Amino acid sequence: MKSAFLILGREGTAVLPDGTTKLIGVKSFEEAEEKVLEFKNDGTQFVELCGAFGPERTKKYTEMTDHKIPFGYIVRFPEIEPLFRKAFDGTGRKCKFAFMIMGKGRYGRAFLPDGVTSIVGVDNFDIALEKAKELVEEGVECIECCGAFKEPDIRRLFKETGEKIAICMMEHIDDPETNEVRRKLFANE
């Protein structure tokens, strides 16, 4: 499955070793819209967005692809909010950040050119937990997780990493057309 994760305020592209998942930095919402239109034509099947995008933009992007590509966006639990605000403090400093994607055959790590923004692929939750602990040890301040992680998974990651960093989860727009596309895409995951 060809998928992408967009992060606002970063530049460049990183691709997991299997070639199917990209982390793409965009400087603006306008640049993100350009990428969405590219996804519509390049075979991208699924897109997840960092926490800056929110539900309204996510819905707009879903409509821009004629509901053919499911989109998700990051949400945070109230207890994680202070850690998230610390990581993204508004000073222009780029925090160490990782997007974690979980699924069959997902593995490895790739960095954007800034060297502090990465995508991490994991095959299962046990590996995710191990990788999350490693990320905390290396100073990553925020991990945003793909939709394969459910709320109990996120809470467990947060607890077992010592509640030291922001760990956020994906939410998906409730759209009948893209819900069916998403169901078919993940039927074998």
How would you sum up this structure, described in words?
This protein has 189 residues and is of the alpha/beta class. It has one domain. The chain has a ten-stranded mixed β-sheet. The longest helix is centred in the first third of the chain and has 14 residues. The chain starts with a strand and ends with a helix. The model has no long low-confidence stretch (mean pLDDT 92).
Overall pLDDT score: 92
Please outline the major beta sheet.
10 strands, mixed
For the record, give the distance between the C-alpha atoms at the N and C termini, rounded to a whole number.
10 Å
Strand order of the largest sheet: 2-3-1-4-5-10-9-6-8-7
Helical proportion, percent range = 25-40%
Class per helix and strand makeup = alpha/beta
Poorly predicted residue ranges: none
**Shape type:** globular
- Strand content range: 25-35%
